Amino acid sequence: MEHSLNKHKSAEKQSIRMTWWTLLGNTLLFVVKFLLGIIGHSFALIADAIESASDICSSFLVLFGLKYASKPADADHPYGHGRAEPLLTFVVVGFLVASSVLIFYLNITQLNKPREMPESYTLYILGGAVLLKELFYRLMLHQSKKTKSSLLEADAWHHRSDAITSLTAFVGISIAIFMGKGFEHADNYAALVAAVVILYNAYRIFRPALGEIMDEHLHDDLVGEIRIVSAKVKGVLDTEKCLVRKTGLYYHVDLHITVYGGMTVKEGHDISHNLKDALLKELPQLMDVLIHVEPDSIAQSTN
Question: Could you read off the pLDDT of 89-148 as tens digits, one per residue?
Fold first, then answer.
């Protein structure tokens, strides 16, 4: 059990290190895209820089959320501090929505104004940004699946949103440059498309976090694993109710098991302890397991 728990803790630390690296990358991208967007006359690149700025804020929130959510339970928080994670996910969603609205406003107000043609070198910046942000997305999504973290998943999709805005900006500027006069506003329209995509991704992030806050049942795979482990423990005849509550990176489980009805209270108590030890060893993502023991119906009917 110690090895499994250490492995899970190691995944948490790796998540924090990875977030620091993405924070540095986002800061660099913001500075480069914003400055070159102004110099290169590209509103799509400036809009993309705004998305990178929101990424910086969300990365700070992710760092805070991961550290706070991993704090152990105390007298005031007997179930731990894990619910801070989906709450901060809502804040990340707020940054995405705000970014989308700001990008939409800045570009819609420019459509009827004359403007200069974007510079061609902005395409190289955007191409590099797409590749880097897609890499960040895949790394963070992989880490979120390892830790079952809604906050890391939200951050991953935030990186994907930035990759999408960079890609749409790349397309818009390419059209403006290669189609020539009359297509100067192509990157504005590209930025508007990006704003809509960001808004959609905000909903995708918001929905599972809301389910976590509301204790929505989203854990069929984990319930299946719990039943498989339980079936291997001597004395457990069957499992009945299995309720799972996610708090941050960990889970609390309420499990009803069936045992032979003719055994003593102590024997049933020992079986439940053996089962709890087995579950915590095999499934390190479980923080605690509350087991309720039921007598089997056959033994009841013969008494």
Answer: 788 788 778 878 887 887 788 777 766 666 777 788 888 888 888 888 888 888 777 776
Q: How many CA atoms lie within 13 A of 232 on its CB side?
A: 9
Bridge partners for 244 per DSSP:
253
CATH of domain 220-302: 3.30.70.1350
Comparison of pLDDT for 282 and 194, the residue scoring more: 282
The domain defined by 2-213 carries CATH number 3.40.950.10: no
Cα of first residue to Cα of last residue in the chain, in angstroms, is 39
pLDDT of 73 over the 80 cut: no
Domain 2-213 and domain 220-302, same fold? Reply is no
Full-model pTM:
0.64
Q: At which residue do the structure tokens 């991961």 appear?
A: 66
Sequence ranges of the domains in the chain: 2-213, 220-302
Cα–Cα distance measured from residue 171 to residue 255, given in angstroms and rounded to the nearest whole number? 53
How far CA 252 is from CA of 191, 229, 249, 280, 281, in Å, comes to 43, 16, 11, 11, 14
Which of 130, 141, 122 is CA-nearest to residue 43?
122
* Strands of 250-259's sheet in order across: 238-247, 250-259, 286-295
The residue-averaged pLDDT of 265-290 equals: 91
- Nearest Cα residue to 54 out of 134, 165, 215, 187: 165
The answer to whether residues 149 and 249 touch, using CB atoms and an 8 Å cutoff, is yes
Sign for the pseudo-dihedral over CA of 207, 208, 211, 216: positive
Rg of the chain over Cα atoms, rounded to whole angstroms, equals: 25
